[in-house]
Amino acid sequence: MKKLWTSYSYSILFFIGLFLLITTMIVTNIEAPKDDYQQITVKKGDTVWDMAERFNGSKMTQTEFVSWVQENNDLHINHIKEGQTIVIPVKKMNESTEMLHLADSDK
Asked: How many beta carbons lie within 10 A of that of residue 89, not counting itself?
């Protein structure tokens, strides 16, 4: 056993370090909580593509928006139902920011 450790100690330490690094990266790379994003209720006639067009900013394409909505709402197809609540990749605004935007809109 001692001979094995002496021969492969650097390799063993390398793989242990690599394992710890990958584990740390996976744990810290967890996506932002869904609480940070807006939730909307689906209205009659809404589609995921319509929502992508209506709510999407310039940060992602419509296709990326639709993919994000599908992945984060466990939608296996583009089918959504009226009354269903889904999370969209639009950050929630806090109340003070919202009031500031409302005040600015009076100009």
From this structure: 20
CA separation for the pair 97, 104 (Å, rounded): 11
- Picking from 16-20, 40-44, 95-99, which range would have the lowest pLDDT averaged per residue? 95-99
Which of 104 and 64 is assigned the larger pLDDT? Answer: 64
What tens digit of pLDDT does each residue of 32-50 get?
566 678 899 999 999 999 8
**CA atoms of 8 and 81, how far apart (whole Å):** 58
Q: What is the 3-state secondary structure (H, E, C) of the chain?
A: CHHHHHHHHHHHHHHHHHHHHHHHHHHHCCCCCHHHEEEEECCCCCCHHHHHHHHCCCCCCHHHHHHHHHHHCCCCCCCCCCCCEEEEEEECCCHHHHHHHHHHCCC
Beta strands in the chain (DSSP E): 37-41, 85-91
Give start and end residues of each alpha helix (H) in 33-79.
Answer: 48-55, 62-72
Residue-level pLDDT at 15: 93
